[in-house]
Design brief:
Order of helices and strands: HHEHHEEHHEE
Structural class: alpha+beta
Strand order of the largest sheet: 1-3-2
Helix content: 40-55%
Largest sheet: 3 strands, antiparallel
Length: 175
């Protein structure tokens, strides 16, 4: 098992990954912000899905998902079709234009990574992929809040319990 100092350094390095993500965000086209890119990426990866599933994969509220979906639909990158199993729901799927936009995003991302990691060997890039995959797997499905006891200082008036039974401190007043 690693020592405490190693975990502290790992925490610092993971925080610094934010700079890498920001750099990747800068290469996005002006009409395709990160939320829209995420919608396209998930539809490209998982295929057609309901908006509720997309919200789950994005790990955001349905209202945020709706805004992202409206943005990409307005640009013709996705279509919303009635769900044959439930006419009140919509199935989201990529259009040809959406697939083309997703391909462009992938090319831009790959090119930036190739530029920034040009002095890395193939083995080093492969090792990074392997270790990041293992790290992500060690955390399980990060989209689902872990079950944990309420904060020790939370009272019923201070805390809000979410759908997963997790109590978080909040400044909101209970309804």
């Amino acid at each position: 098992m690693a020592e405490q100092a190693q975990y502290e350094e790992l925490a610092r390095q993971l925080s610094a990954v934010g700079a890498v993500k920001r750099d990747l965000g800068r290469i996005l086209p002006h009409d395709c912000p990160a939320g829209s890119a995420a919608v396209l990426t998930l539809l490209g990866q998982y295929g057609d899905m309901r908006m509720s599933r997309l919200a789950e994969l994005l790990a955001v509220d349905m209202s945020v998902t709706s805004r992202h979906v409206a943005h990409v639909a307005d640009r013709g990158w996705i279509e919303r079709s009635p769900d044959p199993a439930d006419k009140r729901s919509r199935i989201l799927h990529l259009t040809a234009a959406g697939r083309a936009r997703l391909d462009e995003l992938s090319r831009r991302t790959s090119q930036l990574l190739a530029d920034r990691l040009s002095d890395w060997s193939d083995d080093e890039v492969g090792l990074l992929i392997q270790l990041m995959t293992r790290l992500r797997e060690s955390f399980g499905d990060c989209r689902v809040a872990p079950q944990r006891p309420p904060h020790p200082y939370a009272s019923a008036a201070e805390g809000v319990t979410d759908a997963h039974g997790v109590t978080e401190l909040t400044t909101r007043t209970p309804a």
